[in-house]
Amino acid sequence: xxxxxxxxxxxxxxxxxxxxxxxxxxxxxxxxxxxxxxxxxxxxxxxxxxxxxxxxxxxxxxxxxxxxxxxxxxxxxxxxxxxxxxxxxxxxxxxxxxxxxxxxxxxxxxxxxxxxxxxxxxxxxxxxxxxxxxxxxxxxxxxxxxxxxxxxxxxxxxxxxxxxxxxxxxxxxxxxxxxxxxxxxxxxxxxxxxxxxxxxxxxxxxxxxxxxxxxxxxxxxxxxxxxxxxx
Length: 231
What we know:
Layout: E1 2-8, H1 21-31, E2 35-39, H2 54-60, E3 63-66, E4 81-85, E5 89-97, E6 105-113, E7 116-124, H3 129-145, E8 152-157, H4 166-171, E9 176-177, E10 194-198, E11 202-209, H5 213-218, E12 224-230
Parallel strand pairs: 1-2, 7-8
Antiparallel strand pairs: 1-12, 2-4, 3-4, 5-6, 6-7, 8-10, 9-10, 11-12
Protein name: Endonuclease
Keywords: Endonuclease, Hydrolase, Nuclease
Pfam family, one: Exo_endo_phos
């Protein structure tokens, strides 16, 4: 089994409205997942600089980012990126273009892990339900078009409040959703906006929401996590 996590870090801006990448890294160390999908990992304007400096990750963590940067100083693709253990072999990675009114995207990586080769998709979907469904369809179509198939975990901020309709209804035709719990708003979580989903080749062990004093301060979302492995 390996541990995966998803975390919308809100560009590093915490409950005190201050940008603090060290605080985000403290929370990531608490979660201690093997694979982490990050959303809002870049600033929104200008050079879209990555929130977590590469030097900070190199010197003070066990992770390396898969850099999908749109610009030289960016880490993610429309703010989405994936962190993996420094020992993990990255076999392939690419950005997924999504239909949208506002800048949105998803990222994908094929990773060799102790649970085998796993395909990971990280995403941050639209606030509009209509566009979320279009984006879900684009992600599923992209996966279906891949030459090579691998057990797949998809995770991110779906912005979907209900599991019975919308994009989650589309995703759950082929994927199982981890029962992680509500993760938004961090100070008083009531919304299950963040989700982890796995293909039938994978099983979910333990899962949950990482709610600590540090995670409640660091972002407006709490991290979610799950242990997954082959069936």
